[in-house]
Amino acid sequence: MTVELPRPLREDIEQNLGYVEVYGPVGGGSISRALRIRAGEADYCLKYRDGGSAEIFRTEAEGLSALRRRAEGALGVPRVAAWGGGDGAPAWIATTWVEGARSLDSAALGRGLASLHRPGDEGWGWEEDNFIGPLVQENATRSRWGDFWREMRIEPQLRVVRDRGLLPGRMDDWNVLLAELPDRLSAGDDEGPSLLHGDLWNGNVLAGPEGTPYLIDPAVYRGHREVDLAMMRLFGGFGPRTFAAYDEARPPAPGAPGRVAVYQLFYLLVHVNLFGAGYLDRTEQALSAARAA
């Protein structure tokens, strides 16, 4: 299939990486277009969006670099080659091409995530806001994990769905849950923050050479490790070997099953805001499960 790059996009990429050849489209996400390209002597995955700010890809580049530093030797993370655009031109990012394998080393993914999630002492949040998909993800730091999850995750997305008239469930139920979060999520304060991928559905994990797991398209911040695990369970695609290998390396915190729905609620609200009313029923079910846990 022949793919023509918009002229401003091609010129911008070639200023950074050299003459570009386009191999063809890459399947995957629903937010940006993705292509395999060759520039200079190397192959890259190019993602781009027409118009808009380049901030979405600048912060993605920062997140990928943070994951590479933290996950070195445990998981693969593509290297960022360049990013650019904006001011009316397509925004873009180019990362090193990952030559895929037929199957993923599921146990290596579990062990690698357990290593990535080793706790640090930097505090809950991130140095700046970034994005989950095209939505702004607020990351102002908080001293307690439950406060962060309430004020930086659930409440911002809940405001958007209310403004759109798409509130799933009764607001009274949301208010009760929000008031409970600091105590319900105290296990995070006991363990401390981990670097999270932040958007860990199965489409954001690639099987690289020899099945090595590679993480792509992050929405990073420092949070409780259970968030990534809850997202992995939300839409499926990860087998029991992954979770068993993770738990062997880092056993679950007491009460972990009862917090899964609390963390999945954020991602379901995001999906309501991105894709509409089709996710309302599942969000209401997660709210009921979170309240009952």
What's the end-to-end separation, in Å? 51 Å
Provide the domain count: 2
CATH topology group of the largest domain? Aminoglycoside 3'-phosphotransferase, Chain: A, domain 2
Strand-and-helix sequence, N→C? HEEEHEEHEEHHHEEEEHHHH
Measured as a percent range, the helix fraction is 40-55%
Q: Which blocks of ≥5 consecutive residues have pLDDT under 50?
A: none
Q: Note the overall shape.
A: globular
The beta-strand count equals: 11
CATH homologous superfamily caption of the largest domain? Aminoglycoside phosphotransferase (APH), C-terminal lobe
CATH 2nd-level architecture of the largest domain: Alpha-Beta Complex
Number of helices: 10
- Coarse structural class: alpha+beta
Structural description of this entry:
The protein is of the alpha+beta class and 293 residues long. It is 43% helix and 18% strand. The protein contains 10 helices and 11 strands. The protein has helices at 7-17, 55-71, 106-116, 145-163, 171-184, 186-191, 226-234, 240-249, 260-275, 280-292; strands at residues 20-25, 33-39, 42-49, 80-86, 89-96, 130-132, 135-137, 194-196, 205-207, 213-215, 221-223. Strand 6 and strand 7 form a beta hairpin.
What's the helix and strand layout?
Elements: H1 7-17, E1 20-25, E2 33-39, E3 42-49, H2 55-71, E4 80-86, E5 89-96, H3 106-116, E6 130-132, E7 135-137, H4 145-163, H5 171-184, H6 186-191, E8 194-196, E9 205-207, E10 213-215, E11 221-223, H7 226-234, H8 240-249, H9 260-275, H10 280-292
Antiparallel strand pairs: 1-2, 2-3, 3-5, 4-5, 6-7, 8-11, 9-10
